[in-house]
Predict the 3D structure of the following.
Amino acid sequence: MDARQLEYFLAIVEHGGFSKAAAALHVAQPSLSQAMANLEADLGVVLFHRVGRGVVLSEAGTELLEPSRRVLRDLAAVRDTAAALAGLHGGRVEVATMPSPGIEPLTTLIHRFAELHPSVTVGTQAAFTPDEVVSLVRSGACELGLLGSSSPVNPSGLDVLHVEDQPFVVVAAPGGAIEDDVTIRPEDLAGQKLIASRTGSLMRSIVDDVTAGGTGTEIVTVVDHRTSILPLVLTGVGIAVLPSSWTRLARRCGAVVAPIEPTAHLHVAMVSLPAHLTSAARAFLTLTRSLADRRIRRTAPEG
């Protein structure tokens, strides 16, 4: 067994078949097939079941996924450690992120990271719940995970770095009853039409609390993709309750943003494995810790 075989194995899984994996790897498909046949012979197990023109992972193949990712991460870490002696040059770091933290603080982090390490690529993978972020990091698909939750997380086996707490705000189209930067209370939303995410998120629970007040506020549309919320607000479909990470983008697009009190907070954290991090991932984590420290000092009470 060698690293190249594991790389081929993961490529077949990630691209959904031999032909697409061969194209992505820039190798001939017969060579890829032979490498997998050799790997299966070495291991004494079948890794893929052929179904029609496609393949599906066998039980043994599924069990091999996480160890393969760990091995390749460790090899990358060895290469990066050697390269780090002369500075961080090249490489890639994969970050799993939920939608709202994916706007901020991720935008600030990537912007600063690109300035510090212009030859390193940052890749992001979408996740929509804290559990999905944790799963992507545990499996080795991503080295780092940025999540937002209703309360602080403490997943077993992972390191957790608290980054910031984001209060929720009301985002609305200009020219309406809601004024920019003027604090409102939930009862001030009486009669408003609301754009909401599906049941289960902290955003939705806040909206449900507002509509339960019997003030004539109603949900007019429910969206799965939160990237749809701001365009819907700007077209006048309704208002939305969003984490404050959306504030700068919303105002640049012409929306008004008003603090709401009292409100819940989205707890934003970075999760990572305690080991197996490449130099690029460690550098990104160090930058995140620096940002978190600055924001904590900024919000700390004086005296």
